[in-house]
Amino acid sequence: MVLLHGRLFSRPPILLHFSKFRFPCTPTYALCKSHILIFPYSSDSARSNSRNDPDYLDHLLQQCINCRNDFSYEKPVKQIHAQLLITASLFSAFLSARLITVYSKISLLNEARKVFSTGPEGCFSNSLFWNSILRANISVFEYSETLELYLRMRALGFQPDGFGFPLIIRACAMKGDVMLCKIVHCHVLEMGFGNVLHVCNELLGMYGKIGLMENSCQVFDRMPVRSHVSWNTMVSGFASNYDCDQAFWMFTRMKNEGMEPNSVTWTSMLSSFARCGFEDKTWKFYVLMRQKGVNATAESLAVVISVCADSGFEGFQKGEIVHGYVMTGGFDKYVFVRNSLIHMYGKNGVVEEAEYLLAGLESKSIVSWNALISSYAESGLCDEAFSVFLRLENGDICSMGRPNVVRGGRILQGGNPLQASGQTDLSYLVKSVCGSDQSNLESRLLKIAACSWHQQDTLKKSVGNLIICSNAAKFLHFAFLKVDLSAKDGKFDKLGFFLKLDQAVESEY
């Protein structure tokens, strides 16, 4: 008898070629702690039957789904894929869907698409097979591909089920095409899913994202059953569309109809007040939430801290109280909460605390460094701000991205750290900000209050031309572009500058 990791074998087990896997020991197979998949010693036919068993292969795939997202699982998954091909198990739509899900889990979308495109004809009549590839595309934000699959599905004479339609609705919402959203809604009603709870919830979210809250209300009022998700989606929809009154009305209606608001509902209301600029209401609502015994979430704390940061000294004192709750509640482990705290302390000139909070982050994001640069700029520490900016650009302190227009704008807002160096250094700064090739910048707002401290009209024009002629207009998905280049001598043509800027933006869209 051989004891291996808690399992007895009559003979030494046969080691197979799987690596970095970990499955529970069972009578059919086992995985030792060295991540090697093993089979108990038996005759060749018995061992072959165990490896060809669809239930066994399905169990392996399920274990892969439960594992963390890790590229190190690529080789074992492909070995399982090979075994499925050898045993013709991929003729099962269920196993094919499982394999697509696994490939999606480890971020191998191309492999998932290959499994789908080469699937047997019989698999295409199975909704689970379609749902797996739809979900795989949604998981990597391939919304256009998701909708193309939906069109292909309809062309082949198949229709989504109650689990496929929510994925398609989500893709429509993210694309933001109003007509497409309404067409898919018609398809939902046509197929008889108009009263299915999770389908209706997705419709509520879809109309909220594209700003059609009237349509969202119509869907909501016709729902025979509403869950917390339904109510929260409505409150969040009004909040994201800056309609505080309707959000609060929905919050009140929720309580009147016997549905007690949960922490998500309260967080949505806090976000609604904060978006609309009602700092006092946000704080009072937070206090009421705590008095009601509702547990604060990390998101709600981040909202309240951000509001306190912009509410002057009195708000800063309230923010310090919230900071204490953050520490005692263990919310300081959330990066976005710490980022809000860094912003609050930096905004109020307590740079040392902002530096301390940043140093305590194990994984510092681009937003974290941006908050620190803003802290330096708010306190007039322009040399320190520009030093961090250059280190970011060189990749010395963060490899997640280069400096973008937001960080550069913060430096320019804080003062001119390069005044002694002259025009060349300032031009370098603007070029490094606007000439980046990043396609996923953090913000839609390019706010550069630049050069207002300079008297040279020529310098202002050169900086303006740098911004206009740069690549910024080619890839920035911004809502508007605000550049304050007001000349004290009145010679700078600010209106003409904005007209040129608008033309540059329109030419790219």
TrEMBL record:
The keyword Repeat applies. GO terms for molecular function: RNA binding. Signal peptide: none annotated. PPR repeats lie at residues 227-261, 262-296, 365-399. Pfam families: PPR, PPR_2. Keywords: Repeat. The keyword Oxidoreductase does not apply. GO terms for biological process: RNA modification. This is Pentatricopeptide repeat-containing protein. It comes from Fraxinus pennsylvanica.
